[in-house]
Amino acid sequence: MTRHTTGDKGPGGDGDTAAAGPDAGSAPAVPGGPGTQAAATDTGAASRTDAVTCTGLAYAFGDTTAVDGLELSVRDGEVFGLLGPNGAGKTTAIRCITTLLPVPAGTVGVFGHDAARERMAVRRLLGYVPQQLSADSGLTGRENVELFARVFDVSRRERAARVGQALAAVDLVDAADRLAKTYSGGMVRRLELAQALVSAPRLLLLDEPTIGLDPIARTSVWEHINAVRAATGMTVLVTTHYMDEADQYCDRVALMHRGRVRALGTPDELRTGLAERRGAGSGERPTLEDVFRDIAGSGLDDKSGDFSDVRSTRRTASRVG
Ligand SMILES: Nc1ncnc2c1ncn2[C@@H]1O[C@H](COP(=O)(O)OP(=O)(O)OP(=O)(O)O)[C@@H](O)[C@H]1O
């Protein structure tokens, strides 16, 4: 499996970005795929380091505690799901990891880099698709991805190839020169994925990537995420309300409630754990949502919502169209 180097320049840096190797011509149509990056051995111990570590992370907005002593480790190369109801603190935690919010208490590490002290080093390693719309409806798909390539300091020499690879990775080549406002909601999400992939991130953070999409578009977004991950070995940290998606696509999940992780494991481990707690003959095999309800108990109230209460639906298509 090939990996990025970590030592070159990225967004805000003063030189070309890290990822591409000299033999980009042999790469598949995926930014960061084999042939576009230096070998794993170049990173030394970094390739063994967890992708994300949060210890005692806390964040408050005034009197509102959003994240309350979060402990989290995301392993290099896994798809990790951060699940929880509205207001659990998922987005706040993700924003601390991306360095968009400071780390007022505790620590956050990304591939061994401290998010508080090495913000640029952290930013160079990640791609981020926020909940909010990040595509510009007045630009074409290609222009949107080019804009991100410039922001993330992809060198001029590589830019066109990387943009083409990112668009191909999400199946938007044919639509690349149409304005984004003509795209469906699913296409917009794939465009945002291409924007995040153009810098060939080692860590991709996705905040509710499929919210508001129909089942076919949701599946398509996940298939594209998985294809890029298979080609590059990147780590994916995703928040979602959709338990079925977490079950199907995540290697491990953390169930977050009121700012803390309440349960952690593979979806199967969590379901089996609940089945064992319930005892033999307790009926149908529990779902992940059952696990969460068991853990959160009466704490899952109207204020915090539940997993099917998707108040933050992005309605991407209507906002772009
Ligand atoms: N900018 C802000 N100002 C004030 N309070 C905020 C702000 N952002 C989040 N909060 C509060 O912090 C808490 C955690 O919010 P956060 O958005 O991190 O949760 P979440 O799990 O991502 O929820 P959702 O699934 O709805 O996105 C909530 O009580 C929320 O109201």
Automatic annotation (TrEMBL):
<protein>
    <submittedName>
        <fullName>ABC transporter ATP-binding protein</fullName>
    </submittedName>
</protein>
<feature type="domain" description="ABC transporter">
    <location>
        <begin position="52"/>
        <end position="283"/>
    </location>
</feature>
<keyword id="KW-0067">ATP-binding</keyword>
<feature type="region of interest" description="Disordered">
    <location>
        <begin position="296"/>
        <end position="321"/>
    </location>
</feature>
<feature type="region of interest" description="Disordered">
    <location>
        <begin position="1"/>
        <end position="44"/>
    </location>
</feature>
<keyword id="KW-0547">Nucleotide-binding</keyword>
<dbReference type="InterPro" id="IPR003593">
    <property type="entry name" value="AAA+_ATPase"/>
</dbReference>
<dbReference type="Pfam" id="PF00005">
    <property type="entry name" value="ABC_tran"/>
</dbReference>
<dbReference type="InterPro" id="IPR027417">
    <property type="entry name" value="P-loop_NTPase"/>
</dbReference>
<dbReference type="InterPro" id="IPR003439">
    <property type="entry name" value="ABC_transporter-like_ATP-bd"/>
</dbReference>
<feature type="compositionally biased region" description="Low complexity">
    <location>
        <begin position="16"/>
        <end position="44"/>
    </location>
</feature>
<feature type="compositionally biased region" description="Basic and acidic residues">
    <location>
        <begin position="300"/>
        <end position="312"/>
    </location>
</feature>
<dbReference type="GO" id="GO:0005524">
    <property type="term" value="F:ATP binding"/>
</dbReference>
